[in-house]
């Protein structure tokens, strides 16, 4: 094929089966069609149940794969959204080879008509890693669903009677040793640090059942300090905000693992709130547990952010800023101190 022929626009036609209403594919008032047109390099023309793509052969091939993926999602009962369209295209143009229908229809738990499922390839791999390993570390920036998906898997395991209880914990590092000076009861003092876990629980379980499950000990939400000295059997245990644990606290937590239990540790190594000089347990645990069977590390990135699309851009901007400033400051000695010898 000559270069001229390769660059000449061609037309590709897609016929949508009558059993799949076009409104499910294109959205009310063609709102999804607008998203699709903006995302694709090919021109899209819809008439009746026929979609005509006009553009370079390679661009038409991408567009055709996108419509096939969206039709597959609709056939499986998935309600298409702008987010689903954009994430489907990202998967199709990526290098993983994962099919959008395999990722976006992997249901974890349902509650009051709401279904919790992964939205990116890395999230799907993270969920599968939790199924396949006893201890999983979910490491990534805010908004990547690392804690939310772990909690969904915990609820799923409890409902399937794979475990008898769920234990959710996080360090109350912001309070430090001042916890005793905060007003109110112990519950009042620690509640602000555990509130995000309660909020997620309310998305996954009937709100009226949560107090009953907590009173029975089926669900426990507590600060990390409460884990010391315990052996946690037949439990799904989640440690959130693990970047704010010291190396000693991380070891303490991991060695609480009992028979028939599963652990998920989540955190963001770029948001450490520990006092100066304290090494984050999450930062060193990968080197310590490297090569240990049944322990898995899942990495999530800004591409896996499931909040507002601007959040991913903010994460990327901060990473660039940190990298540029780290380079400007120079190398770090093995002691952990900055090498300032050139300035002397």
Describe this structure in words.
With 344 residues, this protein is an alpha/beta fold. The termini are far apart. Helix 3 packs parallel to helix 5 (82-92), helix 4 (57-75) packs across helix 5 and helix 7 crosses helix 8 (146-159). The protein has helices spanning 3-6, 22-26, 31-39, 57-75, 82-92, 100-104, 121-132, 146-159, 186-204, 209-215, 247-254, 281-289, 309-329, and strands spanning 10-15, 43-47, 50-55, 109-111, 114-116, 135-139, 165-170, 219-223, 235-239, 262-267, 295-299. Strand 2 and strand 3 form a beta hairpin. Strands 8-7-9-10-6-11 form a six-stranded parallel beta sheet, sandwiched between helices. Helix content is 42%, strand content 16%.
Keyphrases for this structure?
344 residues; alpha/beta; 6-stranded parallel beta sheet; 3-stranded antiparallel beta sheet; 13 helices
Largest sheet: 6 strands, parallel
> How many strand elements?
11
Order of helical and strand elements: HEHHEEHHHEEHEHEHHEEHEHEH
Strand order of the largest sheet: 8-7-9-10-6-11
What is the percentage of strand-forming residues? 15-25%
The shape is: globular
Whole-angstrom Rg? 24 Å
The number of helical elements comes to 13
Average pLDDT across residues? 85
Helix-residue proportion: 40-55%
The low-confidence runs, each spanning 5 or more residues with pLDDT under 50, are: 332-344
- Structural class computed from helices and strand pairing: alpha/beta
What is the distance, rounded to the nearest whole angstrom, between the alpha carbons of the first and last residues?
Answer: 65 Å
């Amino acid at each position: 094929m000559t270069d001229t022929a390769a660059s000449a626009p061609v037309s590709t036609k897609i016929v949508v089966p009558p059993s799949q209403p076009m409104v499910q594919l294109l959205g009310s008032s063609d709102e999804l069609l607008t998203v699709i047109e903006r995302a694709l390099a090919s021109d899209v023309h819809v008439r009746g149940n026929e979609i005509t793509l006009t553009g370079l052969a390679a661009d038409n091939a991408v567009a055709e794969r996108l419509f096939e993926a969206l039709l597959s999602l609709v056939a499986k009962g998935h309600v298409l959204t702008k987010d689903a369209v954009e994430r489907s295209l990202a998967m199709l143009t990526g290098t993983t080879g994962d099919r959008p229908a395999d990722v976006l229809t992997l249901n974890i738990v349902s509650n009051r008509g709401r279904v919790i499922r992964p939205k990116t390839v890395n999230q799907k791999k993270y969920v599968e890693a939790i199924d396949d390993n006893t201890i999983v570390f979910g490491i990534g920036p805010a908004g990547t669903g690392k804690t939310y998906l772990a909690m969904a898997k915990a609820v799923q395991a409890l409902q399937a009677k794979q475990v008898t209880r769920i234990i959710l914990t996080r360090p109350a590092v912001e309070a430090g040793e001042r916890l005793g000076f905060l007003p109110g009861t112990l519950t009042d003092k620690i509640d602000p640090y555990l509130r995000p876990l309660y909020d997620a629980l309310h998305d996954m379980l009937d709100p009226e059942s949560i107090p009953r499950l907590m009173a029975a000990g089926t669900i426990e939400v507590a600060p990390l300090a409460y884990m010391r000295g315990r052996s946690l059997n037949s439990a799904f245990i989640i440690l959130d905000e693990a970047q704010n644990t010291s190396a000693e606290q991380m070891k303490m937590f991991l060695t609480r693992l009992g028979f028939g239990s599963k652990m998920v540790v989540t955190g963001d190594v770029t948001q450490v709130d520990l006092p100066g000089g304290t090494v984050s347990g999450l930062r060193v645990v990968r080197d310590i547990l490297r090569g240990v069977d049944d322990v898995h590390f899942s990495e999530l990135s800004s591409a896996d952010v499931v909040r507002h699309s601007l959040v991913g851009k903010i994460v990327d901007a901060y990473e660039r800023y940190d990298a540029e400033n780290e380079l400007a400051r120079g190398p770090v000695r093995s002691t952990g101190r900055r090498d300032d010898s050139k300035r002397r």
